[in-house]
Amino acid sequence: MDNIISVQYPEVALVKQKLHKSATPDVPDTVLESLKSLPLEDRIKPGQTVAVSIQSYSSPKEMKEALELLTSMGFSVEVKP
């Protein structure tokens, strides 16, 4: 028991974090505007396949509108997890 070493621990503080809400008021419209701003027609021709990834946090409304937009542009759409 002569080999006991005294250890000094640092002080500990409780920290709380508040996350800010999204600054985007209308996410579906923002997603659609972002898609519309891309030069997709320059890179993808009607009839070609476009893969769309759906995440667990994706809103069904956002995805439906995005898929409808891509389909209306003449693209064949494949949904991937």
Task: Describe the fold and architecture.
This protein has 81 residues and is an alpha+beta fold. It has a domain at 27-37 and 44-80. The chain is built from three helices and two strands, in the order H-H-E-H-E. It has helices spanning 27-37, 40-43, 60-72, and strands spanning 49-53, 76-80. The protein has a two-stranded parallel ribbon with strand order 1-2. Helix 3 (60-72) links the parallel strand 1 (49-53) and strand 2. Helix 1 runs parallel beside helix 3. The N and C termini lie far apart (60 Å). The relative contact order is 0.18. The model has no long low-confidence stretch (mean pLDDT 82).
Defining key terms:
alpha+beta, single chain, two-stranded parallel ribbon
Mean pLDDT: 82
- Measured distance between first and last alpha carbons: 60 Å
- The unreliable regions are none
Strand content: 5-15%
Kindly state the percentage of residues in helix. Answer: 25-40%
> What is the count of helical runs?
3
Summing up helix and strand content along with how strands pair, one would put the structural category as: alpha+beta
The tally of strands reads 2
What does the overall shape look like? Answer: elongated
Run of helices and strands: HHEHE
Largest sheet: 2 strands, parallel
> Over all CA atoms, what is the radius of gyration?
25 Å
Please state how the strands of the largest beta sheet are arranged side by side. 1-2
